[in-house]
Amino acid sequence: MIKIYPSRLEGEPLEVHDVDNPVLLTTWLASEAKGFSMEGPQPICIDVDGKPLPLESWTSFTVHPDTDLRIYPEARASAAVIAAWAAVALAAVSIVMILTMPKAAKAKSNAQGDELDSATATANQAKLNSPIREVLGRAKVFPDYLTQPVSRFVNKRQMHTTLCLCVGVGRLSMAPSLMKIGETPFAAFGSDLNYTIYGPGETLPADARSENWFRVNEVGGTGAGTAGLDLASTAPSDSAVVADSMFISGGALSLIGNSPAFPDQWGLGTSITLSAPDTYTITNAGNYSRIAGQIADLAPFVGMKVTLRYDDDLSLTVASFSPYVPPVPGIGGTASSVTASAAPTTLNFSTTSVAWSVVFQGATRTISLNANYASMAALVSTVTAQLSGIGLVAQDSAGKLKILEPSSPYKGGAISLTSAPVSVFGSTPVYVTGAASTGGNAERSAFITLNYDSGTPFAGLPEGQQRLALGYRGLRYTIQSVSGLTATIRRLTDTGAVDASWVGFTDRTLLDFSLAGSGGSANWIGSFMGCPENELATAAEYDIFFSQGLCYYDKKARLKTTTQSVQIRWRDAALAGAWNTITHTYTDGTPDQIGFTESVTFPYPLRPEFQMRRVTPVEGGQVRDAIQWYGLRTKLPAKSSYPGVTAMTMEFRGGDRLSAQSERQINCVPVRIYDTGTTRSIKDAALYVCDSLGIDSSLIDIDSIQNAENTYWQPRGELYDMSHEKQASARDVLAGIFTAGMSHLTISDGLLGVRREGIQSSRGAITPHEMTSELSSAFVAPSPDDFDGVDVEYVDQYTNKKEVRQCRLDGSLGLKVDKIQLDGVTDNTRAWRIGMRQLRKYQLARWSYSVDTELDALVFEDLDHVTLADDIPGTTKSALITDFYADGDSYVLTLTEEMDWSVSNPRALIRRHDGTVTRLFAPEQITWFEVRVPSWAIDFDLITDLSIEPARFLFGPSEQVGYPAMITEITPNQDGTCAVSATEYSEELYADDDNFPPT
What we know:
This protein has 9 helices and 69 strands. The protein folds into 8 domains: 2-100, Ubiquitin-like (UB roll) (Roll); 134-211 and 640-670, Immunoglobulin-like (Sandwich), CATH 2.60.40; 229-236 and 521-636, Jelly Rolls; 240-325 and 444-519, no CATH class; 337-432; 674-756, no CATH class; 781-845, Phage tail proteins - 2 layer sandwich fold (2-Layer Sandwich), CATH 3.30.1920; 848-985, Elongation Factor Tu (Ef-tu), domain 3. The longest helix is centred in the C-terminal third of the chain and has 17 residues, at 828-844. The strands form 17 sheets. Strands 18-38-21-35-36-20-19-37 form an 8-stranded antiparallel beta sheet, with no helix packed on it. Strands 22-23-33-25-24-34 form a 6-stranded antiparallel beta barrel. Strands 55-61-68-69-60-56 form a 6-stranded mixed beta sheet, with no helix packed on it. Helix content is 9%, strand content 38%. Keywords: Membrane, Transmembrane, Transmembrane helix.
């Protein structure tokens, strides 16, 4: 057998090759690796029977079926050598793979099976007292668990997960193409996924996916990296005798060797497994392997269920039995023989093997020597075993090897050797051609043939003498007594009953025996409470996981079936009475991870507690039987509906359908369906928020909101798309909604409304006649600390991911960038426009103003564009209008102040009684206190009898009549005046409101 390993670290081979017939090592390498050559250094090293095989011996070494040959990568190989071998294409996994793909071992032997990937779709775990998600408009969301997810093993290799999820508050519309696990749409999973959506308050009739299963967190993976609680510690203790050899006679076992001993816990009733091999002669008889020899130990009968231990434990049935027939010698004749001309030059053939062929009576046998035989007797025994079946044996003839017919009746005829090695036979072996005997019959040993349990004939054992162990199915015995180094035993049948007719073993001493048993009582893991206090469960489910598969490998790495059992027990924790025990037995032959979900229904609602254990010891070695308690959950009462929210139930097949490394969260893109409005509109989002808070419509400025919707939001395609998942004040939410429409939340005259910021004509003026304090102006000079860029973070409507839109003015280097986050904005253009508006304010709005007035300021609102004036000579001047008369197509106004007509290109405007202003016009001086104005400038009822505040006349140079400003705050003072704050207003601040971002 040839095994290829990834390294010399303990671990499994990458591949295993059976060798059916002897073959030269270099011939095998050449057949597996095209282009193989012995020239130059090699990147691999080879061990034979645990010892290194020198490179110079590769060309002469013969690999036999029982050769233990192992190939490892040569750590000292140069890069050039490895590169040269990497170009050699090998069949199957390839030797090159051990040079390029080393991996850590997962088991001590044989190939690791496929892992059962427990990857499942996941959702969000809602936090205690956190708000339920509100989707306003359209947004990508990750639903929350309404009940704990449940994963179950189905058909051993599949894992199905059921989920009950909350998508969000209210009625939601979800396009199937936008419902995904990670980035994969639901539809791509086909029948592996099924789901149902339930509207607010809809019942979930008989939907098992909505059941409320409580997961017991104490059962599951541990910090040691296991998927579940390992049951190895619960198994009964396994032990074996300490002995170099053993003498068996009848029903007695006697230990021999250096300090032999039986395990202390062994005694009356201990169950043991005993393999007591003997030498049998195997021949092919039709479709059967005929097993002949001393079989009195077995006491066989047709139909007897037996275990045959050769390379492996085989479960078979006796098909036929023939008793022993003694020999009848022939008359006359002589034995044929061939005798070496010299004693063997060496008995150690481990480094340089030899092989030759023996032909006699038309039959050929290939003899090979490839080990250190240490003694002539061992060499003779090896040759005799390989001559089995052609009527010849080997003998030690005065130190020389002799091959001959052993006894009468003789067949006679010549024995020929092909390629007889000089190191064994010398240069001139002596051949004797014997003569056939007359009559007589050779002895015939007792023999049996076997069937598999299915009735198929058992064949395939190599012909010749073989060491086999035969016994009742399981090779099981029970101890009657142990006294010192001797134990008496009785055989057990395949059913576990004592075989009273068994007379015992034939006397012999064994070196290749195996004797082991299990003793002591198994432990339980647990107890674990199945549900919280004050809760009662009606059923339970538990998962049993075989992390290494369930199988074992024979000595030739052939996969075999094995059986393991576990026990679980439960009881009512409130009563703490007797336990209810359930046994589960599993039989399989797979190295792949497998799992099983079992269930139990309780007779009445209770709070259960559980324990679990494995029944049989952990065998280890070539057996893969690790068992883990993977999960435990109990069924609690569940809600039949979820008022006010959209829910979704689903079942998903995990395991080999979804990678553990993938993003596995369930996500969808729902659209909110408002009760009284269209989806995604800013107006309806705002009105829904107000309605959900119980704000009466009489407290909402519906006209301002509807006007913004008709004038700006709807024509310009400005929408609000946002998923609200954290607590926030109503003011902040409404402000965010209106910000998405480039507008601002306002509260005026006790009404909640909205104002659209942007280019607007001056709505009014504040002159020194209204001021109770001097106008304060502040200027901020440009500096390196100014923001010269804005980065806007928003969720893109196409990718549903956060994107960043850079906003820059011409020539901006982006040395200092402000980062802002826009909620509800999902398109690139609007994000850029809002960012550019903010950037222009950083760069261009340098002036700020503050002043106190009487109650006059209350005629204005936040964000109003107003004209501010002061009385600094050479700038602006204001006066009250005390009288007027018409003069043709104009009016003549009488003022309380004298205007400074020395300014260049004088211009003026009139502040009406309600605080609003007219357009600029060119006045004409009549007298020091009289001016002529166009007739259109008096477009209101001018009242001069002081019954109301008189109108104001604001005068200044054409370059600037007052200061354009935008009110940011109006605050009442304690003395009954109002404090007004404003910033510089310029149409340039809104120059990009209708532009598009650069590509």
